[in-house]
User: Fold Peptidase A1 domain-containing protein from Meloidogyne incognita.
Amino acid sequence: MPSSSSSLLFSSLLLITSTLIVSQKIGTIQMNLHQFARWGSIKMGDQTFQVAFNIASTNSWLIAKNASFNWNEQGLQRKKVRYNGNSKTSKSLGKKFDFGGPVGNLYTDTLTIDSVQIPQFTFGVVTSGIPSQYQDPSGYDALCPIDGEFGLSPATGTSTLNSLTKYLDKPIVSIFTTKVGTGDDNAGSITFGSENVKNCKPKYSYVPLAERSNWVIGIQSININGQPSINPLGPTKLKITNSGLYMYGPKKQLDILAKQLGFNVPKDSGTFYTKGSCKEMEKMPNIIINVGDNKKQAQIVLKPKQYMEVSPIGECRFLFMASETYASPGDNNYWSMGAQFLLGRCVAVNWVEGTMGFSDAN
Assistant:
């Protein structure tokens, strides 16, 4: 028969363990891709919604039950889920909003991310101005899975992420990417409240954000193993893009990188850099991107399988494209990194400290 002291010790350990389990406030949800936009499922009140994660926005919104669309939803395989405001925790704030396109009314309700609940979460219920990429006026996107947006901008002040801070273990959001197809399901995960240490190495290398409202960091240099750094560097900032597949930089600098790696340099900025064969891919050198500022730096390594591929037509392609032709408007002043850059790695942002960290997949 166990002694009273042993029973007391066991009870104490059980209590500590139970407390740790209950107090862990980390939520992870499956990430999917639609036209390269990241999306996943959250719960608002007693309804489940599929939302696009917009890393450039501070706001979150869902579609109102009385919202108008530019097309008739009848007959579509998937209709939009509309916020009905019927949950016991739903409350209208009696205020209008304009998020620079989406307009409507402000509400609060209980947000659930995985198993983490955030009470009285403020969001917009959109009645009009739904972004065109989430509508289907032409019929090309009849199965668009997006019911709203969830803002992941690390900006200070009023924002979606700042409203989560006190309900999570850490003010950190982590993105892990395993697929980069235009319509891939289960393409990775998004973790709220911690770095992703399940899929990536536990030690993340953090550097300060170069722009407080965006997933942007400074670049110190870019080079190939054993070769001089690109000079001039061109843009001195690296930006994680909201969508897009490839990595983008100025053609002048990409021409230098491509030559060092043995790719043919096209005259046209809208053409792929190619080479005869990818058979020796495993023997190709790494691309080293040194990021950070004058006080703190980190190194991001692009392995051959992350910067080159065999295309569907069998040619060996460089996965960097000229920003002059392909980057989104306003992104020519950055080295812009699409889904391919994130493949096989985790990127985390601490929105309170204003830092971004990287870790390679296990």
